[in-house]
Fold these 2 entries.
Entry 1:
Amino acid sequence: MEQGDDAAWRKLLSDADFLAAVEESDELAEAFVKRMDRQTVEISRLGAPEGEAPEIWTYAAHLFSHEAPAVLATARVAVWKDDGNAMIFQTAAASTAVPQEVLSRVVATAKTEVENLASCDKVAGVARLDGSRAHCGKHGLCAWVRDTKAWERFEEPERSAVEAIATNTPRPGHSVLGKGTFEAAKEAWTTLALGFADRAEVGEAAIFRGAGAKLAGINWLHDTSPEALEGSGGATAAFHFESDK
């Protein structure tokens, strides 16, 4: 991989089996990064915007030509041109071997371009905290709460409610992990989520911070998909960017 020509490298980057192998091998991951370091990573918008009100713009970090790029990482942006607003969301990487700094560069570029090309003077971001994406591994909010037993900081009923959400199990005396548990944990969980989003070194919150965004707050039960409830208790983090204009 490190010594092969560009054609062979491009073929590997489009091979799902190879990318899966990189996830399982530290040696392959190290070689992947070394090969990336030898080439220029370009960042640009992919294709034309999709939809309207909002338009969805996709930015990508890629190798090789714009005509046939080997995409390493992406970020999507919802753009409301009439209101001058934009929301950056849904970052993704082809492999965990793609350095997190590359994703931060994609987000930073997207922010600058929607300001300049779409005259957006208010640019925000929303970061998932569930740790379920390929570039985040098992570094989500619930995993952090479990690892640190953060529920021990609180008194009842918050204590058992936070533990239940973090472990995805009903509270003692309850048959389901339901609305009452989430309501009992709301203030404590929001406090924990703020601390996690402000300090996590891996994941989407860290990507936004690396792009210069400031943590603005927590969106309570913003994502109620099963994966998000299991990984972050449904919480996402809100970020804002200061205008360069």
Entry 2:
Amino acid sequence: MLSTKDMAHAVKNPGQLSDAEIKTILENWDVPDWSDMKPEEFRNRFRKSEFHLLTDSVSNLLSIARINYNFKVKIDESEYQIAELVGFVAVEILKGYGKILLDRVGDNLKNRNIEAIGFCKNKNSAFYESCGLKIFYNSVKFLREMKDGKCYTPTEDDDIFSLTLSDNTLHLFEKLSHDRLAYLIFE
């Protein structure tokens, strides 16, 4: 693994990403429907996001994370602006790059007073827990999203984790249950 002093963390909006960076991001996200996405379509689709990039000394991408600002969370009739960590991948796994980027993303968001959560499958929760993040196990089932007049659970993930939630917001997520649901509101 590289020394952390040989790594750089950059935060870019979609318009600041080069075509080559977009190509690398799409390759590493491995979403078949997006494999042929053109750079301008990418920039438009993710316009309410920012990208956190961990690079080596010659600007090769080591790890990628997207922060989605496209929704709010409604709990107990109050809406909370909470960002979502998505598209988080290491270009090479088991080298520590993901953990390094996750730490830097968390620090960056905390310094800007941005609350953020992420979603994961149970099998990945141990990684996030090893990074010191609070896991709300099996809590995705307490989220709902409205689409076409119907309410549904928005993701196939199992758990929610706190990247940068405040103590007050942490408390709200800890109390989610079948009787106390949270609703995702897309802007």
